[in-house]
Write a structure and sequence with these properties.
With about 260 residues, the protein is α/β, with parallel strands linked by helices. The strands form two sheets. Strands 8-7-6-9-10-12-11 form a seven-stranded mixed β-sheet, with helices on both faces. Strands 2-1-3-4-5 form a five-stranded mixed β-sheet, sandwiched between helices. α5 packs across α7 and α8 runs parallel beside α10. The termini are far apart. The model has no long low-confidence stretch (mean pLDDT about 90).
Length: about 260
């Protein structure tokens, strides 16, 4: 697929941040010249257009928009702060302050942000194999400016790396992270989940295999955790012990203790 990048209607110059984004992606720049996004896409044979906005890059693709927003992470952390509501991912990971956390499937970044809030000072790394997704989320995180310091701090604490998780795990020394976490695209998606709807078209849909899980067990010091739909059978197929929240929750977590 081909994508191009342009500015908003009111801007005619490329900022230093936008120039760096272009060099990292890489993606071709097209001057806006007051043209519509559909016209720009058609003239340049592009499947989608990235618009560089003040709050970060926004991808317009298939009548949908992909951009960084902390909505799910914000809600989950807020529920804990206000009501002390337990976060199931944090329980599955047994994440403690100071623990390091490797998110092998970053996506929109919500799980990494939640982990960053709970670990505090621990290293949080998010891997995303799809370059355009990785750069949009990375730059969206770096440019995010909200009015909740606890959320801003967690977002800025996540290190985003554009890399295939298999290659990254193989390159790491044993016991590099306390927690290694996987949340691959579900085999049977929850279609009403709007926050990740634009992500489905571009994300890596490859299933995990046992070799990757074994490598993750070497890299983790405490736990390897898998998030999956309860009915998909992935937890059992990959050798995890099942940890569920409630019988009405379609999401389940699988855990392998390695420490």
């Amino acid at each position: 697929m081909r994508f191009v990048i342009t500015t908003t209607q009111s801007v005619n110059t490329i900022s230093a941040a936008m120039e760096q984004f272009i060099s990292e992606t890489p993606i071709d720049y097209v001057p806006r010249r007051h043209g519509s996004l559909s016209k720009i896409a058609a003239e340049n044979g592009a499947d989608g257009v990235v618009v560089w906005e003040n709050t970060g890059p926004v991808l317009y693709y298939r009548d949908e928009k992909l951009f960084f927003h902390p909505s799910m992470a914000k809600c989950r952390i807020a529920d804990y702060r206000k009501q002390k509501q337990e976060d199931l991912m944090i329980r599955a990971c047994c994440l403690q302050p100071g623990d390091s956390f490797l998110d092998c499937t970053l996506g929109m970044g919500a799980d990494s942000i939640v982990a960053a809030y709970f670990t505090g000072t621990g290293r949080v790394t998010g891997l995303e194999s799809q370059t355009l997704i990785a750069q949009i989320i990375k730059w969206g995180m770096s440019m995010y400016a909200g009015n909740m310091p606890w959320l801003d701090k967690a977002i800025k604490h996540v290190e985003v790396i554009n890399c295939d998780h298999r290659a990254y795990l193989k390159s790491q020394a044993s016991g590099t992270y306390e927690i290694v976490y996987f949340d691959p695209m579900f085999i049977n998606p929850i279609l009403h989940s709007q926050p990740i709807s634009p992500l489905r078209h571009l994300a890596n849909h490859d299933q995990l295999d046992r070799e990757v899980v074994q490598i993750a067990c070497r890299v983790a010091r405490k736990r390897v955790v898998l998030k999956s739909r309860a009915a998909d059978g992935e937890i059992e197929r990959l050798g995890f012990a099942r940890l569920t929240g409630s019988k009405h929750n379609p999401i389940a977590y699988g855990v392998i203790e390695v420490g």
